[in-house]
């Protein structure tokens, strides 16, 4: 395929700019798009028409509350364009159809009593997509599949180098899912994708320096935003906070000899404390909140103390403006966010704590799915005409 001419290249960039604006910010009037891009009204009208022809946006009636000047049609992404987001875990496979407008159109959690293989994952995803296409997604335009995997994912080709809790090593999950579904597929680390979602739409929106920690069934991962940009590292493996070895002052507080953070701050240990074999995030949070068992309170306090030390280390090294906690870490933090911040401050350098805010992930259970969908949508957002063709 030949490279576009300079004029075609400018048009591609302008199409991408418009589509990304209405994707990130929601429906916008043509007047707002003109102001945001600096393009003239006729160019905006032409670009919107082209995006409409390829089924990516639609125009709606002007906002009736706008009473000054000439009414301007509102441009919104098509509600029929979706990506399939997938999060394989040790206890469940969660799938969702996520719209280009960020709506969770469908969601399903498949509870498991065994560890998924990469091949089984691909077959389950293909099976659900086929069912959804024959039913609730009959009118949808499914563009791609995005997987948020709890493990090391090589950025260059999506190879899952190591998902230790799933026992996946050098697993070609991207290729397996693409072959089973017939759809373009992207794979990323779950916490990295969660950090990206929270930065775009959630608790870290508009923040340039962010540390994100995700607590899931497979352990603890993380993501970094520096100068407003995701930091993946040389191979795509940055952010593995769960593999750090926390300092634990009291030997009685240690549960794993020489264990890493995710051995000590653990969803499994919380489930055991409240007597649950498995649970989704809201169910675990409700069980912890409802318990009056001193042993449960002690386990929560132990884990919060170790988490505060890990966060202090991250704050000292990275000097973020915001720390965002997702998954069961959000549950632990939300029990007393101010007290957790005080515990972090007691162990961090005072200058690094200035202006620091510790927040829970505002996208809650949607964060990994939205992050996976964003990765799936990226080729379309970068070049709408080519990706939609």
Automatic annotation (TrEMBL):
InterPro entries: ATPase_NBD (IPR043129), ROK (IPR000600), WH-like_DNA-bd_sf (IPR036388), WH_DNA-bd_sf (IPR036390). Belongs to the ROK (NagC/XylR) family. This is ROK family protein. It comes from Microbacterium insulae. The lineage of its organism: Bacteria, Bacillati, Actinomycetota, Actinomycetes, Micrococcales.
């Amino acid at each position: 395929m030949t490279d576009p001419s300079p004029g075609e290249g400018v048009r591609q960039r302008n199409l991408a700019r418009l589509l990304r604006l209405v994707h990130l910010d929601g429906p916008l009037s043509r007047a707002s798009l003109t102001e945001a891009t600096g393009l003239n009204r006729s160019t905006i009208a032409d670009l919107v028409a082209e995006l409409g022809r390829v089924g990516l946006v639609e125009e709606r009636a002007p906002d009736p509350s706008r009473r000054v000047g000439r009414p301007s049609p509102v441009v919104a992404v098509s509600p029929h364009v979706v990506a399939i987001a997938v999060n394989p875990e040790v206890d469940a496979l969660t799938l969702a159809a996520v719209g280009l407008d960020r709506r969770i159109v469908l969601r399903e959690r498949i509870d498991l009593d065994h560890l998924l293989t990469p091949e089984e994952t691909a077959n389950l995803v293909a099976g659900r997509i086929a069912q959804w296409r024959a039913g609730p997604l009959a009118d949808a335009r499914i563009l791609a599949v995005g997987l948020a995997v709890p493990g090391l994912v090589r950025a260059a080709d999506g190879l899952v180098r190591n998902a230790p809790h799933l026992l996946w090593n050098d697993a070609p999950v991207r290729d397996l899912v693409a072959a089973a579904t017939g759809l373009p597929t992207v794979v990323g680390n779950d916490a990295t994708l969660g950090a990206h979602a929270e930065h775009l739409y959630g608790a870290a929106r508009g923040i340039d320096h962010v540390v994100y920690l995700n607590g899931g069934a497979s352990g603890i991962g993380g993501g970094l935003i520096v100068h407003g940009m995701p930091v993946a590292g040389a191979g795509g493996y940055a952010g593995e906070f769960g593999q750090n070895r926390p300092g634990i002052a009291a030997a009685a507080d240690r549960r794993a000899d020489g264990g890493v953070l995710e051995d000590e701050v653990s969803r499994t240990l919380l489930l055991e404390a409240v007597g649950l074999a498995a649970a989704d995030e809201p169910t675990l949070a409700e069980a912890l909140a409802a318990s009056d068992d001193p042993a449960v309170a002690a386990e929560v306090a132990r884990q919060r103390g170790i988490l505060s030390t890990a966060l202090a280390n991250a704050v000292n090294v990275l000097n973020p403006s915001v720390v965002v906690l997702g998954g069961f870490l959000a549950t632990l933090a939300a029990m007393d966010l101010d007290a957790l911040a005080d515990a972090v401050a007691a162990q961090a350098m005072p200058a690094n704590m200035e202006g620091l805010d510790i927040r829970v992930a505002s996208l809650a259970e949607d964060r990994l799915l939205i992050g996976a969908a964003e990765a799936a949508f990226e080729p379309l957002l970068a070049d709408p005409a080519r990706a939609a063709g």
